[in-house]
Amino acid sequence: MSNWEDPEFEMFAFFELTPDLVCIAGKDGYFRKVNPAVIGKLGYTREELFAKPISSFIHPDDKDLTHRERTKLLKGKALVNFQNRYMTKNGKTVWLEWTSIYIPEKEVVFAIAKDITQGKQREKEIEEKYKKFKSLATHFKSSLEENKKYLAVELHEELAQLASVVKMDIDSVGSSEPDLQESSKNRIGHALAVSDLLINSIRRISFSISPNMLEDLGLDAALEWYCTEFSILNEIPCRFESAYDESCLTNEIRLDFFRICQEALTNIIYHAGAENAGISITENGSNIVLTITDDGKGFNVKDKKETRGLTSIRERVTSINGQLTIQSKPGKGTKISVTIAKP
User: Fold this and answer.
1) pLDDT higher for 157 or 195?
2) E strands, 116-205, where?
3) Residue 211 CB coordination number (10 Å)
4) Can you give the CATH number for the domain in which 43 is found?
5) Where a domain ends, among 210, 227, 260?
């Protein structure tokens, strides 16, 4: 009498009526016993199942993984909720989730599996819908950025140049008319100063709408410049620190990181009452972490009604499969962290 036929295994009869797939396999990789659910699910006869190695029924793409897990199983590690695919006799694929144990004194594996094919199909449908919506979101985001880029070019190339021409004309009038009254000279001087402010404002707005520096010099250079401008214009010192490899970021992520920083710094201006701010991008194992901090009045995260800026940040983080963390307490400032896996 072989080991698998010992009376101890008569308990197998209790599993004959279960809808789960129950089987006993030898150490040699062949089925020894199977319940009717195995036959019904795979479509083979009992004799056909016993005639070939179990691996011959496994989906080709899952054979290596299954072999590795089976090796661990035979060394004493129980197999719990392991998923792989089997091929039925009529060529269909079924997903099975296995829980198995190895009984060394009998040199057999006792295994129970559930059919999770429908759940896997739903997962696939959800994944396909997610990819579709993500593709649409990326398309709309790209279209919006292209429109912003066009507007920025129009501002910089058209309005800024026109303002420069006006400034030159005003300057020319002041230089070519030495006999102007003092009040007129003062007005011309004032007009020149306003022209300078107008040109600089147009350039700053153009950069905010579409930062060409981001494409030309990279994210670090763009954020370094932006922090400097933020400090000068708002009298709030803002430092930028970088300790990561920027080349691992896609253009989409670079742009989203920049936009997130824009939104966060705008929130600091209008809501934080901060004396200092900071931006850092670091590596943490297989992740890249963007952090924006301020030492402002802070807020209770649980009770805070989300602003338009925070909503925009959250949406951008979601679009790049990132994780957003907001830490803040009244009187303790705010820390916003965005973590993404390295692309």
Assistant:
1) 195
2) none
3) 25
4) 3.30.450.20
5) 210
- Residue by residue, DSSP assigns 237-274 as -EEEEEES-GGGS-HHHHHHHHHHHHHHHHHIIIII--
Instruction: Look at the chain and report how many structural domains it folds into.
Output: 3
* Distance, CA of 268 to CA of 218 (rounded, Å): 24
Cβ distance 260 to 240 under 8 Å? no
For residues 199 and 165, is the Cβ–Cβ distance under 8 A? no
Candidates 319, 322, 261, 270; CA nearest to 293 is 261
Q: Encoding tokens for residue 302? A: 């649980």
Find out whether 279 and 220 touch, Cβ atoms under 8 Å: no
At residue 157, the pLDDT reads 62
Q: What is the pLDDT of residues 248-271, one digit of tens each?
A: 898 888 888 988 998 899 888 888
Q: Does residue 145 surpass a pLDDT of 80?
A: no
- pTM across the whole model: 0.53
Could you tell me where the beta strands, DSSP code E, fall in the chain?
A: 21-26, 31-34, 79-87, 93-103, 108-115, 238-243, 277-284, 287-294, 323-328, 334-341
Ramachandran bin of 239, using left for φ above 0, alpha for ψ from -120 to 50, beta for the remaining angles: beta
Whether residues 37 and 109 fall in one domain: yes
